[in-house]
Amino acid sequence: MSNSTWSQQILQLLRRMNNFYLPGSRRSECLRFEVNGAQVGWVPPHVASVLTRYPKVFCPPRRGALSLCPSWDSNETRSAAVDSVLRTERQEGSLTCLKGWRDEKYSVMPKFFDPPLMWMERAATSLFGVKRYGVHVNGYTIGNSGEVSMWLARRSLTKQTYPGLLDNVAAGGIAAGVSIKNTLVKECQEEACIPATLAEKACPVANVSYTYMDEEGVFAESQFVFDLELPLDFKPRAGDGEVQDFYLLPLDKVKELLATDDFKPNCAMVVLDFLIRHSFIDPDTEPCYQEFVAGLHQTL
Amino acid sequence: MSNSTWSQQILQLLRRMNNFYLPGSRRSECLRFEVNGAQVGWVPPHVASVLTRYPKVFCPPRRGALSLCPSWDSNETRSAAVDSVLRTERQEGSLTCLKGWRDEKYSVMPKFFDPPLMWMERAATSLFGVKRYGVHVNGYTIGNSGEVSMWLARRSLTKQTYPGLLDNVAAGGIAAGVSIKNTLVKECQEEACIPATLAEKACPVANVSYTYMDEEGVFAESQFVFDLELPLDFKPRAGDGEVQDFYLLPLDKVKELLATDDFKPNCAMVVLDFLIRHSFIDPDTEPCYQEFVAGLHQTL
């Protein structure tokens, strides 16, 4: 692949992952999702038309916003009211992403450190464009001659999302009430059998944020990125069945793969950020350097 | 200073440096500056009213845009026509930032790697909101026990901009036709007497972008950031009179200084990016981690 084809493929990836911000996106058709007067997401029109069938839970849309009825005035009551709607709709089957129900509770709040206003089933967050937070780990090695290689996971073919694609060595969503570091340690253990003593050496280095919209909903995501240098004699092993295999690849090969359909898109973004931070991309020869950096950090 | 005061000061810095994007900014009053049909900047109203006095050079504003007359159809003729207007206005004295005339030519283009449409005197770029590109170098040391310290420059009191404030060890704008790497090497030599053999070891690691507007104009800037580990026995020395002194400070002290008025604002942003990339900010205890990352990478 020529350098310029590579750059264009990466740019397309970043545009796709940020399509919510592009001129002409369907953002203008979405309603702001408000809880207790604060915006916490975006509701696409096909979801709004379902939710407004539950007038005891959601107020009729007003001034471009869909609000949770103010009578639900605590984290517990709000969460229970919305959960009940979602469980009903899960039976109805009209909102396809509820088929991926996980029984994982995600916090809903205007900003990461704000007190949560409610929690919501993970699979439903994209119906409300609620921001999801996660942790991604770049697991890498430095060879005896200084050459950097990266461990990549191949997702299991039975994963609900992106089956069979390349992934970071460990990654996962931050569930309600769990710290970033604890999520990191847990995912390292579960997904890659990286012991806690080793996982705890991971360094927080970045945040990668993006928002895309597809026919299912609005995916507003923010990933806390960690670098973890792994010993040369350590091999990650599949732990919980989410991964079918791990590969240790030279960084040149990883860079090439980034521009293919073989990578889970947000993991490709995390690796791109690694390549930039570790000087594997030269701003004097990469015409899109700035656009790459900008595309990794889009926020509303 | 408490942690939360520090965070709030940093957030304010980032908001100030990105005030062009804030709701209610004077961006809506600006005209797009277009050359050959492509937008290359933003012209504030007080500047537009001056420029429209030169109808042979600038077309009358139309549909929110101020365009260079299409009769100027080459880099050379466009540059000469605008330069002549600017030299006249420099005499008039109504556009204060022309008092800082530098005789440095900056390229004008829609994106960094695009072929330049014209060049413009550096001091005038903010009148047109033309994006300026620069290089900033984090010069740091790693002590024998692993402790990281950073070299900071104190700007000379005779500098036209930000006299007496703290600065990165070396930094400078990228002039027309000069590469990023060559700008880096030149600034390291001129400002800090860092020899080329050492400067060339600097690693490209990031890009920091922001746009602010003040009474003088629109400052749209994009800085290519390099990390340069300096030997423990190396001391930068003032070269060209732009710096009065250099200090080697422990990173905790540098972090504290970031939140004070003693730092040139864009240099504080570059150091903040260093602190994040090198894990000196913990996302589990810094509530504004994400906002910090987002604030360092704002683009139009």
Strand count of chain A: 12
Residue share in β-strands of chain A: 25-35%
The averaged pLDDT of chain A comes out at 96
Element string of chain A (H = helix, E = strand): HEEHEHEEEEEEHHEEEHHH
CATH class of the largest domain in chain A: Alpha Beta
Radius of gyration of chain A: 20 Å
How helix-rich are the residues of chain A, as a percent range? 25-40%
Return residue spans of chain A where pLDDT drops below 50 for at least 5 consecutive residues: none
- Give me the number of helical elements of chain A: 8
Cα distance, first to last residue of chain A?
34 Å
Give a description of the structure.
Two copies of one chain form a homodimer. With 300 residues, the first copy, chain A, is an alpha+beta fold. Chain A has two domains: 3-21 and 132-295, Nucleoside Triphosphate Pyrophosphohydrolase (Alpha-Beta Complex); 26-127, Transcription Regulator spoIIAA. Chain A is 28% helix and 26% strand. The first copy, chain A, is built from eight helices and twelve strands. Chain A has helices at residues 3-17, 45-51, 75-92, 180-192, 196-199, 251-258, 265-277, 289-295, and strands spanning 31-35, 38-43, 65-67, 105-108, 118-121, 132-142, 148-155, 166-168, 170-173, 203-213, 218-229, 243-250. In chain A, the strands form three sheets. In chain A, strands 6, 7, 8, 9, 10, 11 and 12 form a seven-stranded mixed β-sheet that branches. A three-stranded mixed β-sheet of chain A has the order 2-1-3. In chain A, strands 4-5 form a two-stranded antiparallel ribbon. In chain A, helix 6 crosses helix 7 (265-277). Chain A is globular, with a radius of gyration of 20 Å. Chain A starts with a helix and ends in a 5-residue tail after the last helix. The model of chain A has no long low-confidence stretch (mean pLDDT 96). Chains A, B: GO terms for molecular function: 8-oxo-dGDP phosphatase activity. Chains A, B: Residues 120-273 form the Nudix hydrolase domain. Chains A, B: It holds the Pfam family DUF4743.
